[in-house]
Amino acid sequence: MKFIFTLCLAFFAVWGSLQAQSNVSISGTLSDGESGETLIGATILVEGLNTGTTTNEYGFYSLSVPTGDSITLIYSYVGFQPELKRILPTADVTMNVGLSTGVKLEEVVVKANSFREQMNSTEMSVEAVSTREAKLIPVLLGESDILKTIQLKPGIPSGSEGTTGLFVRGGGADQNLIVLDEAVVYNPNHLFGFFSTFNTDAVKDLKIYKGGFPAQYGGRLSSAIDIKLKDGNNQDFEGSGGIGLLASRLTLEGPIKEGKSSYIVSGRRTYFDLITRGINESQKDDPDFTPIPDYYFYDLNTKVNIQLGEKDRLFLSGYFGRDVFGVEGDFFDFSFDWGNATGTARWNHVFNPRLFANTTFTYSDYQYNIENKATGFSFNVGSNIEDVNFKTDFYYTPNNQHTIRFGANVTHHSFTVGRLKAGSDDGTISFSAGQEFEGVEFGAYVADEIDFTDRFSVNAGLRFSGFNSQDKTYVGLEPRLAARYSLTDRWVLKASYARMYQYLHLVSSAGAALPTDVWYPSTAKVKPQRSDQVAAGVSYLLGSQFLINLEAYYKVLDNQLQFVDGAQLFANDELEEEFAVGEGEAYGLEVSIEKKEGRLTGWIGYTLAKTQLDNFETLNPDGRFLQETGGYGAFSPIYDRRHDLSVVAMYEVTDKLTATATFVYGSGDLRWLPTGRFTFQDIYGASFESVVPDFQERNTFRLPAYHRLDLGLVWQFHPKHDFTFSVVNAYDRRNTFFIYLEPEFEEVDNGGVLVEVPTRIAAKQVSLFPILPSITWNFKI
Amino acid sequence: MKQFSIIKYLPVLSILFLAACDLEQEVEIELPEYDSRPVVECYLEPDAPFQLLLTKSSPYFEAFPSLDDDFLSNLLLQEAEVSIKHNGITYPLENELRFDFFTGKLYNYSSTATVPYDTLNPFELMITLPEGETITGSTQLLPQIPIDSVVVEVAESDTLARILTYFNDNPNQENYYRRMLNLSSLDSIPEQDFAFTDRVFEGNVVLGTNFEYERGDTIYSALFHIDKNYHDFLQSIEAAVAGNGNPFAQPSPTANTLGGTADAIGIFTGLVYDRRMVIVDF
């Protein structure tokens, strides 16, 4: 591996020197001049020449310009005042530029910048939201949540309380690569999915790829969600925080050495438990009172950013979060905690103005632990996945027509699946179960973004990936191709193809994704998942303020896992015997219109989609999968949503007052309900079951449509203070969380004996929350 | 292994919300069409008569007949030809309603002949329904696995006792069990009733309870040695009942243990067990 990279570097160095003969390179970093935060996706244009570039995810750019006449460079980024730099290009030069927010300009070029970037890039099927948008758009109980906000974009089904997973373009909940500062986050949820693990105060940037995956991303089939934490203010100490009904949060950042290094620490914690503990304490003498369970979550983000010189930068960042749930009774003490821990050490190095490298060492851990202590007896159940990952990525810009990326990564995974220890305190009763696996996942890629003409560009890449576990090695070649053709300045056509392999599987029940879902490696029997996705789309710039996107996709999925009927999930040392493997397909059409500038901003997104799974075979020949053996054929997963609409509007009423409105509408999710029933009298000594459901074909019942309006108002009553008012579910819609069928009984006098007989069955719908107003106070120090 | 399930704790948070607002309401829904299926329950207990209950399933929302109406005719599937063949002998089961006052169980097909305790040869069930469709099944009696002892144990600082039931599991074979523990009488709702495998233990095994029994309580502790079919069937019944109403549970179709053309649900199995009675005394 080392030899290959040395060879590559030598090749690119020689090519670079040849290319450099008539051009010089201007490179550097673009940042927020007030805080030192690097700016991702900022634009650098050469005035008068039809050439330019954008900063990469580390704020670095490299641009080739001809030697000779002096030129003017325009550095710009939405929300910042453009900076003009005039230079005489005679030799390679480093230009680190800081932009200031300053006075807002009315130039069209600035307003359209973000759209121009989208229009000019080969990237498609990409969605992004800014932290500003995330902070304005309320989610439950006034908390902002950038991961929930991105779900308002087309192709990422929104709404639906109680479902924790992201189901991108018909993919499963395990098919999303979620990386926080390049470390994988295995469970991005708090509170069973109502909140994400990402504290918006600490996040700089979030981008989600739904298709057309660049070659640097691998390991998941359906999306790559790349989240970058803020670097920390390297100019001044700054603090911010908020106190809401659910949680409080505090972020502190500042320079370690002004202009050279910085830190950021951000934490938040909920305080349900303080209230419920008080209630429990006050009611402890009431024998009829059932204690309310304790629940809280917290998370902590930290980052240190050190500029080691002109060419080197070091970042150290970490995340730790936990959900803690507990309930105590007279005879038991139950606790359940789960959470992620990640750590990242990252080194950016500029070899020369054309070659930039990012080398990362990450650590990820996700685990859950359940413990129950009854009188004289206890049990402990848990699972975890732990990764150690080394990764290096190179950015090479030989000229303005080519941007080449190449790199490699290797990850060591450790899995503990279904660890169980149970027994009595005196050791009389004792048993245990669980499996442990280790695996090594690796990948290497190369991709070139080629601008053939101003109108036509292609990003062609190839990824080689593999996985080794239990003496079984899988490898795969993953071609990636994306193309852009500009018909006019306003019309752009795009198309992409991507093959993805996924070597890890999330074993989750058919009901909903839970913290107890288990990550399972590919083994000799469980083959890697694979997908092939093609997408094609058209973008139209309407006027200077609106971008309309229309995109269609078709995805084929192989080696998809489902549980067999009646799967035994706990205390099972042969879990893969409970799997069935099949295939699937997903297709859909996404339309969006977006406005990013002006007093009114926001977007409308609509998705028409369908997902189907088929041809499942059980890994254990004795396994049951009625969907196949009963001849029912293809079925849709519960998250198959035919229509999905989201409307997001943010209106700046005055400089101090911003109003927001979010409306979502989606076809109801699918559920597997029983269609028949029978009585089961059982044997002597056992209970008589008068109604046993007879489940047949999977997921044939569609829940009522989901819709909801959320309103928000941010009042900046002081330069450093604001109140955020929000009303979630403004018209008090009772959306369905789940439906169950409940027999009703009455007592009948049967010859002098009172007999309880069923009289009817009622369908009951359970909703999770009514209209929820809230207020949050946000402050800056 | 019901007690290890986290699932039952998860809706608690939902209940917190529900307690505050009326978030549950009755709705009208339409389910796909459903064709009624025969339902068989036949347990072969050594030295007990051959007896079988043949009923039929219904669409989920079909009205329940009242006891005043022809309740049984709506429930029972009559006029079938039922026989059980064993070791070359065919035992026909007559279609007559029989209520066992001792066990409180009802059967509509039975024979006066009793089940021979033969663990070597299979029993074959053959049912021909009036329309000509068939139901078949096969099972074999298993050797009894005896309970070694039932021990009443009291914590030093407590006035309540727990019940420990000891038995020996043969580590050289895969065994399936049904555990049942009743308080006061066998007519009571069992305190414990679950099917399990010996996947996570072997050798000397003890099944325990919490410290919750008082002096003078009568405990019936039973251990059934069952086959995989019966184990899977019981698990699937439990999962089917749990899967309706719990959004975190995985629904499960009933395990299919029967053959034939009638697409029947049910179980045909041997019933070999050891049951001990103890009176809590300390």
Characterize the structure shown:
The complex is a heterodimer of chains A (781) and B (282). Chain A has 781 residues and is mainly beta. Chain A has three domains: 2-105, Immunoglobulin-like (Sandwich); 126-227, Beta Complex (Ferric Hydroxamate Uptake Protein, Chain A, domain 1), CATH 2.170.130.10; 228-736 and 769-780, TonB-dependent receptor, beta-barrel domain (Maltoporin, Chain A). Chain A has six helices and 45 strands. In chain A, the strands form nine sheets. Chain A has a 22-stranded antiparallel beta barrel. Residues 1-5, 16-20 and 103-112 of chain A have low confidence and may be disordered. By secondary structure, chain B is mainly β. Among the domains of chain B are: 33-141, Immunoglobulin-like; 147-226 and 273-279, Immunoglobulin-like (Sandwich). Chain B has three helices and 19 strands. In chain B, the strands form five sheets. In chain B, strands 9-3-2-18 form a four-stranded mixed sheet. A four-stranded antiparallel sheet of chain B has the order 6-5-10-11, with no helix packed on it. A four-stranded antiparallel sheet of chain B has the order 15-14-17-19, covered by helices on one side. Chain B is globular, with a radius of gyration of 22 Å. In chain B, 35% of the residues are buried. The chains are: A mainly beta (781), B mainly beta (282). The interface between A and B is large, with 98 and 93 residues.
In short:
By secondary structure, chain A is mainly beta. Helix content of chain A is 7%, strand content 57%.
Quickly count the helices of chain B: 3
The ordered string of helix (H) and strand (E) elements of chain B is HEEEEHEEEEEEEEEEEEEHEE
Q: Sheet with the most strands of chain A?
A: 22 strands, antiparallel, barrel
Count of strand segments of chain B: 19
The low-pLDDT segments of chain A are: 1-5, 16-20, 103-112
* Sheet with the most strands: spatial strand order of chain B: 9-3-2-18
End-to-end distance of chain B: 29 Å
Largest sheet of chain B: 4 strands, mixed
Per CATH, which architecture of the largest domain in chain A? Beta Barrel
Tell me the name of the CATH homologous superfamily of the largest domain in chain A.
Answer: TonB-dependent receptor, beta-barrel domain
Q: Biggest interface: chains and residue counts?
A: A-B, 98 and 93 residues
Number of separate strands of chain A: 45
- Our measurement of the CA-to-CA distance between the termini of chain A, rounded to an integer number of angstroms, reads 49 Å
Mean pLDDT of chain B, to the nearest integer, reads 87
